[in-house]
Design goal:
nine-stranded mixed beta sheet; alpha/beta
Length: 364
C-alpha cells in the first residue's frame, strides 16, 4: 500500500466513520514508519472510544477535535527507519491506530521492546506506549498470534482487576457480581476468581437474554442472570459489583435491590456504550471508574518495575489457552471491512463467541 489509509471515527458520534487517504510519510531521524499488519477489534475498543476524552485514548493517535483514531492491539512491520537499532522488516506488537500505517519515535530501545517517545504521548499512560520486538519470540508465543491481540489485553485487565480485589481483601465481599458477563474481560475475571486456590466468593454473571446460553456454557459462573432479573439476587450478601456494561440503568437496579450490601461498584467498560450513565447518589458503594494503569502503577511500586505486567501476561496465556477453543476467529481486510466491523461491534451485533481480526491493507 503506497498511501496511508485511516478509519477515522466521530468523537461525538461513534457511528460517523470516514475513510481518509494520506501520503505515506518518510521516516525522519529518530522515527520509524510501521505498516499495521493486523489487529483485533473487541468491545474494549468501543470502551476506548467512549472514554476517549475522559482517559485520553483519542490522544494516542490524534486527528482533530471532531475525529479520532481508535487504538487497537495488533502487529506491525517496520517499513522505513531513521532509528538506529531498528531495521526495516522488524515485526512489532503493541498499540496501533485503526489505520494502515503509523509513525513511532522509539526510545529506551531494548532487545525485546521500546517505548514510543512521541511528544503527544508523553503525558499518556505509559502502559500503552510499550512495543514488543518479536524477532526472538518463542514458537509457542507466535502460535498464539490472534489470541495475543484478541485476548491478552483483555485478560491483562481481568488479572489486574482480580489483583485489585485481592489487594483490598475483596472489599469484604462474599459475592462478586459481574456485568456484561459474556464479554472477554468478564470471562477472564470470572476464570481467575473461580480458579483461585483459596476462593471465598460466589461468582454471578449478568448478561442479556441472547447471551445466557453462551455465558452458562463457559462453566465458570455459579449463577447467570439476565439484567431484568436482578431482584432474584439474595439480599444482605456483601457484593462487589464489577461492571463491564457502564449502564446507569443496571447500576441503579442493583443499588435499589441490594442497597448497602454493595461494598464495591467498579465500572470497567462500556459495552452498553449508548445507555444512560449513572447519576445521583446510591445507598451502596459509589460507582467509580476502574483505571487499570493506576493499579499496575501501584504494583510497580510494590513489586518493582515490570513484575506486574509479567504476571499479567502469564495469567493471560493461561486463560487464553482455555478460552481459544470457545472462540471462532474471523479475519477480514480492507478499509470498508474495518468500517463495517466497527459498526457491527458498536451496535452489539458481534456474537461473543466471535473474535474479529482485521487489516486495513492486504494481510502480509
Amino acid at each position: 500500500m503506497s498511501a496511508v489509509v485511516q478509519i477515522q471515527i466521530g468523537r461525538k458520534d461513534l457511528h460517523a466513520v470516514r475513510l481518509v487517504t494520506l501520503p505515506l510519510p518518510e521516516a525522519a531521524e529518530g522515527e520509524v514508519v510501521v505498516a499495521v499488519d493486523r489487529f483485533a477489534l473487541t468491545a474494549n475498543n468501543v470502551s476506548y472510544a467512549v472514554t476517549g476524552d475522559l482517559i485520553g485514548y483519542w490522544g494516542f493517535f490524534p486527528v482533530d477535535a471532531e475525529w479520532g483514531l481508535v487504538p487497537v492491539w495488533g502487529y506491525g512491520t517496520v517499513i522505513a527507519s531513521g532509528c538506529a537499532g531498528l531495521e526495516v522488516g522488524e515485526r512489532l506488537y503493541g498499540f496501533f491506530p485503526m489505520a494502515s500505517h503509523v509513525v513511532l519515535r522509539p526510545g529506551k530501545v531494548r532487545p525485546d521492546s521500546f517505548i514510543d517517545f512521541a511528544e503527544h504521548r508523553r503525558s499518556l499512560p505509559g502502559l500503552y506506549n510499550r512495543y514488543n520486538r518479536l524477532g526472538g519470540e518463542p514458537p509457542e508465543s507466535a502460535a498464539m498470534g490472534d489470541e495475543r491481540c484478541l485476548l491478552f489485553p483483555l485478560f491483562a485487565t481481568s488479572w489486574i482487576l482480580s489483583d485489585y480485589l485481592e489487594d483490598n481483601a475483596m472489599f469484604g465481599a462474599t459475592r462478586v457480581l459481574i456485568g456484561s458477563a459474556s464479554s472477554k474481560t468478564a470471562f477472564g475475571l470470572a476464570w481467575l476468581l473461580a480458579r483461585a486456590p483459596d476462593r471465598t466468593v460466589e461468582i454471578v454473571g449478568l448478561t442479556s437474554p441472547g447471551n445466557v446460553a453462551f455465558t452458562q456454557s463457559l462453566g465458570i459462573y455459579d449463577q447467570v442472570l439476565t439484567y431484568d432479573r436482578v431482584e432474584a439476587l439474595e439480599t444482605g450478601v456483601p457484593t462487589a459489583f464489577v461492571d463491564m456494561s457502564g449502564s446507569g440503568t443496571v447500576i441503579r437496579a442493583i443499588d435499589d435491590h441490594l442497597g448497602e450490601s454493595v461494598v464495591l461498584s467498579s465500572i470497567v467498560g462500556a459495552t452498553h456504550w449508548d445507555a444512560k450513565r449513572h447519576k445521583g447518589e446510591t445507598r451502596g458503594a459509589t460507582p467509580t471508574f476502574f483505571f487499570a494503569p493506576a493499579q499496575f502503577g501501584k504494583r510497580e511500586q510494590d513489586w518493582g518495575p515490570g513484575v506486574a505486567m509479567v504476571r499479567a501476561q502469564a495469567a493471560s496465556a493461561r486463560i487464553a489457552a482455555e478460552a481459544r477453543v470457545l472462540l471462532e476467529v474471523r479475519h477480514s481486510h480492507g478499509p470498508e471491512a474495518v468500517r463495517d466491523a466497527w459498526l457491527e461491534m458498536l451496535d452489539g451485533r458481534t456474537p461473543p463467541s466471535t473474535g474479529v481480526m482485521l487489516s486495513v491493507g492486504e494481510v502480509p
